[in-house]
Amino acid sequence: MNSLNYASLFQLTLPETILEVFSLLILLVDLGFLRKSAQSTRMTAACVLGVIGSLAAAICLVCCPQFTSNTAALVSSPIVVAAQIGILLLTALVLLLSFKARFSRNPGEFVTVVLLATTGMLLVTAARDLLLIFIALELLSLSLYILTAFSKSSAQSAEAALKYCLFGGMSAALMLFGFTYLYGLTGSTNLAEIAASLATQGVTPLLIVALVMVAAGLGFKVAAVPFHLWAPDTYQGAPAPVTALIASGSKVASFAVLVAVTTAVVPAAASSQASSQGASWTVLLLTMAAASILLGNLAALVQTSVRRLLAYSAIAHAGYMLLGIAANTPQSGTAVLYYALTYALTTIGAFGVIAIVERTTGSDNLDAFAGLSRRNPLLAGTMLVFLLSLAGIPPLVGFWAKFNLFAAVLRAPSTTVWGLGFVAAALAASAVSLYYYLQVLKRIYVLKPTNEEPLEVSPLELATLVLITAAVVALGLFPAALASWIPLG
Questions:
Q1: Which residue, 396, 386, 402, is CA-closest to 346?
Q2: What is the pLDDT of residue 71?
Q3: From residue 403, how far is each of 262, 292, 324, 408, 410 by CA, in Å?
Q4: In terms of residue numbers, what domain contains 473?
Q5: I need a labelling partner for 310 at 20 to 30 A (CA). Which of 88, 181, 303, 429 fits?
Q6: 278 to 285, 445, 488: CA distances (angstroms)
Q7: Tens digits of per-residue pLDDT, 73-116?
């Protein structure tokens, strides 16, 4: 029996194993063979190996899905595999945009830690046990703390990493306390067993405390208000590829585990106890959602840094996705994953453009983008698509992400009381978000550049950004292509 369990566990963790093998290979090549080579050569070799490792793990998931090889702690359902493939492809895109990065003298270590963070994301997505969820989240978080501080010559990077680590440590402690209380109430760390046990219990003060603490810990991971304070400084201070990773793959994994936890703490049993517990958790999620949508969009209006603008925008988008999680249906869970993946794809492209502008002008302020359309029309066109998609303008994929999410919320049986009001408020907030995205586009297309020289972009960076742009447009024109690939939870 043990051999069977270990065989199933190995099958489930084969993509993570591939990433770990490539992590060791990158260190071996970088420190063993290329130690005295040029910085650009070392970064290129590390990124190439990182991309190959990410794609190899994704191919493993596509060709050898193990939907029946579940264990008590890990699952491999179709929706989990879809999220994991998305995370691996997002990581590959981040690495493709990192070839020209020069913020570190240790490229091998940088790409290795990126793959370690991706390993944490994959485990978080598949975990269905409180202990494994905590360990996987900490692997992800510790890797991101290190990556945030990787620019050793930048005081902003060090400050951002310190704040990120301090807030992360506090949120991890709160979440762990919440998990221990759930274990004390149910006698299990398995989410399915917790759900079955809570379905027969009433609401107690200890359960409320546990839910609040779990919400605080997971709210930090998705940068939801009031656990968002780390996000603006981290988005601004971290190296651009790291910020792209935090805003993309990390968000997908965090929302995936939040959906799983919601399913456990909101039992499906139609009893008064279950209804009370569901109401308690739903109130927590809706409170964070409303605060995130309001604060995120209003704070973004006054930002002069495009990085901070996108940070507050990310907080608002987290609020939209929390509405879908609060609805707690298979359709809304699928809509949240669709939203998270498309938002992550678009955000990687936006931060890719920001990285190029920063490298050329030395700033991410709004004025640094002045006249970009004259200096590099193709680069400006990609940013136009990314920002309009984030604003939810049809026919781009961001429109369909919001449409599917809000439609799933309105159709959920549990949202008859609050659904219409929250969706209407979210639509109004989306209109507000269009204003601050247009402030960036105004600089790009209306204002004159202070420097008339053409802005040079490496062919690989430009090709990657064009590929992301094409994906955003194509998925908007053919929304069913991605929707059919993501099964019902």
A1: 386
A2: 67
A3: 22, 19, 11, 8, 11
A4: 2-485
A5: 88
A6: 11, 48, 21
A7: 888 888 899 999 999 999 999 999 998 888 878 889 999 999 99
